[in-house]
Amino acid sequence: MRRIRDLAFRLRALFTRGRMRRDLDEELRFHLDMETEKLVRQGRTPEDAAREARRKFGSPGRQRDRARWAWGLSTLEDAGADLRFVGRQLRRDPGFALGAVLTLGLGIGANTAIFSVADHALLRRPPVEAPERLVAVYTTARRGFPKAASSYPDFVDYRDMSRTFAAMAAYSSVPLNVGEIDTPRLAVGILVTGNYFELLGVRPQLGRPLDPGDDRQGAAERVVVLSHAFWREAFGADPAIVGRTIRLNDSPFVVVGVGPPGFDGLDLSTAADVWIPMFAGPTLGPGAGAASDADVATNRGARWIGTLIGRLAPGASLAGARADMDAVSRRLAERYPDERAAVDGPRGITLDPIDGYLLPVGSEDVLRRFVFLLLAVVGITLLLGSANLANLLLARATARRGEIGVRMALGAGSGRVARQLLTESLVLALLGCGVALAVAWLMLGGLAAFELPGGVSIGDLGVRLDGGVLGFALGLSVLTALLFGLVPALQTSRLDVVRAVKGESARRAGAVPLRKLLVAVQVGLCLVLLAGSGLFIRTMRNSLAADLGFEPAGAVAARFNLSLLGYTEEGGQAFLDGLLAGVRGIPGVEAAGVGTLVPFQDGGFRGAFVEVDGYERRPDEEIRVDYVAVEPGYFEALGIPILEGRGITGGDASGQAPVAVITRFMAERYWEGRSAVGGRMSFFEIPVEVVGVVDTPVWQAVGEEATAFAFLSQRQLQSTSSFLTLVARTSGDEAALLPVIRDRFRELDRGLSLTYLSTMDDLVAEALMPQRMGMTLLTMFAALAIVLAAVGVYGVVSYTVRRRARDIGIRIAIGAPRARILGSVLWEMAVPVVAGLLVGGIAAAALARTVATFMYGVSPGDPWTFFVISALLLVVSFGAMLLPARAAARTDPVRVLRAE
Amino acid sequence: MPIGKPDMIRGTLDMLILKILSLEPMHGWGISERIEGISKDELKVNQGSLYASLHKLTREGWIRSYWRRTENNRRARYYELTRAGEKQLGLEAERWGRLSTAVHDILATT
Fold first, then answer.
1. pLDDT tens for residues A109-151?
2. Is the predicted pLDDT of residue A487 greater than 80, yes or no?
3. Residues 6+ apart with CB under 8 A from A170
4. Domain ranges of chain B
5. Strands A223-226 and A251-258
6. CA–CA separation, A881 vs A829, rounded Å?
């Protein structure tokens, strides 16, 4: 009851505060008048009486404050006054306001953007039921490669023999050519077992999910579920989609459902477009690879299913499931001793908890490291910015001691003053937050063009600034404000009014060392960023200057898959002949060829175990050779130098003696000084003659470990059903060649879609994307850091000089040489700067080791890089000190001493 | 504040205001005059505390105010006790009685 009345009073006070204030003024005036009249009656003169009454009454302003405080109104009203005051203060010192807001905005904005990316890549969980109970299951094929694919019989064994899983599903992605829409397009199909949707607990937005009834061999009607995003992109969100027939790889499928928004499978790097029952694989033709084989359900050796997903049974733990599957693995090894014995060690089963989206297999660690590197970079920038802001606010609070002292002497309560300072920080924080959102938005736009390691395109992640991230930014801003608004506020509320007003600087021992410490921290953090930037710049330069074993400039590449359109081997070969003839006829084209693999493209590797005549294998040694099927002209088009013998020619056709061209690395490794040309090896138990040796091209990343590669004749291997890449070399402009090549493809088959069409330079650049991104971001932030550090050093030195103006004046007056003044100011700051350099250098060297994965041709502790950036930072800090130090040396003693 | 005059004991001002107002409605200046007069200037009322106190008591609902003409035809804000205020005065007077007896007993101990 009392509470309600109290609130009612406050509210009434708020709405009628104008009248209440007038009433209060009148009441106080009445009091003063009565007091004066009384004194006059006692015989004082009117003037004397009025003065005495006012003296007795005290400061009217203060009385009014106290009465208003009693109304409980002041809190609300003062906030408005504080805001107006802060506005005036900031307008009076726009440099400070701009510096503070930009520092906060850039620091927090960059953190928000990178945090959003990290959140989407690593922290986000797929929108499925209880993802924490899901486990990814892989068949271990070889030591060091624990997450290999499984065969359908493997899946059936694991599912039926395990006791710790409530259910298990399998899925694998296949490339699709989607027809019956305006423009035929490539899409990502996911072949799933019938229980996939039920196991994940995913309910479609339209229609029904796939169910076990759809996933039967020889089902009369083939059905699919579309992803929400694909339904919108390719079908314009057609509400009548359910029941419509579409063509996948030229076979009819009926759409039975559309997935819920936001669900595109469990893999970070592969967004599902279409879900297809696993046993529909053969319908998809040879393009679906092993999935299209008729014996897919029974062939134990056909390991093509990328991922198995198990849902833990109630009460089962991950550790329990691991023990369970180990036992299953042992029983399977007994049952199929030949088949389970793999190259180096028996097959096993690997379980991986699903604590987010599944990262690209093999790139998990690199991807995580890279994201943490990004977080570290922006985190350091934020720390640096905060140190700068703290410095700015501290300097400002010190400079305003006089002003604040006067206000306190006039009767402002110390709590009121402290709150005003806090309001100022809060206003800065909110403005900073606004700038931060703009920065984050712009940065996300810029980041969309980049790729994380493992081929995860940031643009495809669909990163948005959502509510959570907004809260994150807001929280950071307010935290920063409270932290750095509170320190000066606490300092000032303890201020000794008398000394402050007299202009005497309170010699608080703590103030200057704190500021010097901040400078040391800034210089150290700056060095860390500069070191990272330097290492990445050198990596980039080394990578770009590295010998790639081929010549990307002048070459273009186009990737396509004929089998998706149902080409036979003969039809495919005819298509290739027509394509090569057409491309070679384009003016300016010097060479053109086709291969199953070109350098710097994603995937497409195929390996075989071979025997080399005359090479004595150790008992435990296997000769694994990656091979590429090529058409004549391949080496010339890519600019791979033929070092010995010849390349693949048109004469290497089927029916002729099988030939191979090998890389120099392979020749040196297995022919050991003898000439490899004329040598023999057995490939798939077929004798093959080595006819040439070429330079060793870089396949995926500069600095990669070279492996044995062999080039076989496409016409002999007959592999037109796999993905193929056309390469062409022109003496003219390669960008201008791209549309001409697209036309040549169209002329041969209008329905064929290209996976990519790109210059080789772009492919190489794309592979260096993480390094490029690291370099760009680090250099950007290092530049920002160096500016912040310079401002920080400048601020502290000029503050020190101002504080010492009197001492310096006296020293000059008694004859100290100005050079010595300059020297002493510089010397004082040299200590924190050098200390910061040392500590920062050690920290940078330690941190650099964790990102050594991304370095090429430069060691993480590269002395040259560290020397150059230390020198740079020293010069910048010295420059920042010199300005105020010279001003100090030019101090006019007369002016300073008179000012006291 | 004249030397030797005791400052108002914290919290007692509220009680004294309630007491004065229980006699008759009065304006701020009158209240301070009454307190000083009755106590024969032994108690001095700090004007700032007086008005803060008056507004606090109003907020508590123990007194209410209205504007009226004084005998000299000046407009002044008068305060009067509410029912809740009367009850509060009783409580505070009783507590004060116990407190002063206790203090007296301690001082009288020989």
1. 888 888 888 888 888 888 899 988 999 998 876 555 677 788 8
2. no
3. A150, A152, A155, A192, A193, A278, A305, A307, A308, A309
4. 12-108
5. parallel
6. 8
On whether both A598 and A716 belong to a single domain, the answer is: yes
B56: closest CA of chain A, how far (Å): 5
* Phi, psi dihedrals of residue A461, rounded to the nearest 5°: -70, -20
- For residue A330, what are the domain limits? 131-353
Residue A208 lies in a domain: yes
Distance of CA B100 to the CA centre of its chain: 17
Look at residue A574 and tell me if it is in a domain. Answer: yes
Question: Going by C-beta distance under 8 Å and a sequence separation of 6 or more, which residues neighbour residue A424?
Answer: A86, A89, A90, A485
Best residue in A12, A30, A33 to probe B by mutation, most B CBs within 10 Å? A30
Q: Which of A22, A46, A72 is the last residue of a domain?
A: A72
A189 plus A64 within the same structural domain: no
Element at A186 (helix H, strand E) = strand A185-192
Reading the block at residue A96, the tokens are: 């400070």
Chain pair A-B, CB pairs under 8 angstroms? 60
Predicted ipTM > 0.85: no
Secondary structure (DSSP) of A367-404 = HHHHHHHHHHHHHHHHHHHHHHHHHHHHHHHHHTHHHH
CA distance A666 to A645: 15
Tell me, yes or no, whether A149 lies in a domain: yes
The number of angstroms, rounded, from the C-alpha of A560 to the middle of its chain's C-alpha atoms is 30
Judging by beta carbons within 10 Å of its beta carbon (0-12, 13-18, 19+), is residue A345 exposed, middle or buried? exposed
- Asked if B59 reaches chain A (Cβ–Cβ under 8 Å), the answer is yes
Helices (H) and strands (E) in chain B, counts: 4, 3
The answer to whether residues A206 and A65 belong to one domain is: no
Domain B12-108 has CATH 1.10.10.10: yes
Query: Are A694 and A571 members of one domain?
Result: yes
Q: Which of A30, A38, A63 sits opposite B74 (nearest CB)?
A: A30
Measured between CA atoms, the residue of chain A closest to residue B47 is A57
List pLDDT tens digits, range A594-611: 999 899 876 667 778 888
Which of B28, B47, B52 lies closest to A70 in CB terms? B52
The answer to whether position A86 is within a domain reads no
Amino acid at A760: M
Residue B76 with chain A: CB contacts under 8 Å:
27, 30
- Model-wide pTM > 0.90: no
* Partner B contacted by A26 (CB < 8 A): yes
Question: A67–B29: do the CB atoms touch at under 8 Å?
Answer: no
